[in-house]
Model the fold of this input.
Amino acid sequence: SPLVIAIDGPSGSGKSSTSRGVAARLDLAHLDTGSMYRAVACRLAHLGIDPKTNPLDTIEVARTCRLEIDTSADHDLVLVDGEDVTEEIRLPETSAKVSAVATIQPVRDALTARMRQIAAERGRIVMEGRDITTVVCPDAQVRVLLVADPAVRIARRQAELGENVDMAQVIDSIVRRDRDDSTVSTFEEPADGVAVVDSTHLNLAQVIDAVIDLVPQ
Ligand code: CDP
Done:
């Protein structure tokens, strides 16, 4: 039977590792919806389209580009128009560009439709993002908002990126994106029926357990 687990959370809340962990434990598919916004941002950069000055072409690309996203829990291959952007979507340059793409409503509508289609095709899936519990899959059987103190989120993102990371850039990518994304979703206020899991003082295994505990038996 279908099972959709919707997990929203801000940058560094641990939603990617949590979502993958939950999907692996329960043998579900996994879709990182942020990777779709990131892939569109990469495609736009390759085409020389600036979303801030050229929203119309931006919307056209979001509607028509071919997105191929691996939905297995232990893989994260992402192709846009046949080009492998798996690495490029994670670069700080891409993170800095993605909010400008994601705040254009017709872009969101186009990607939301694709997300719902993937969820319907897979049937049993963990969907992670920013507006999955509220907009993309409000009828999901399990809806979780993952939160954590900003200092902890910054430390986690730093650990993920390694030693030679530019701390100013890490802090910027968290704090500035919280602000830039705030028109898209509210992170502190869960919608009705959405469970809040605060990972500030939990390790990954504990967070995965907390989400799995929410799955109806
Ligand atoms: O790196 P981080 O986990 O913060 O972000 P992500 O999940 O990869 O998402 C990157 C960006 O895509 C976010 O900062 C949002 O601007 C946008 N996004 C969104 O608007 N809605 C989603 N469902 C997922 C991502």
Observations:
- DSSP finds nine helices and eight strands in the chain.
- The pocket of cytidine-5'-diphosphate is lined by residues 11, 33-34, 37-38, 98-99, 102, 129-132, 177, 181, 184 (CB under 6 Å).
- The longest strand covers residues 3-8.
- The chain has a mean pLDDT of 92.
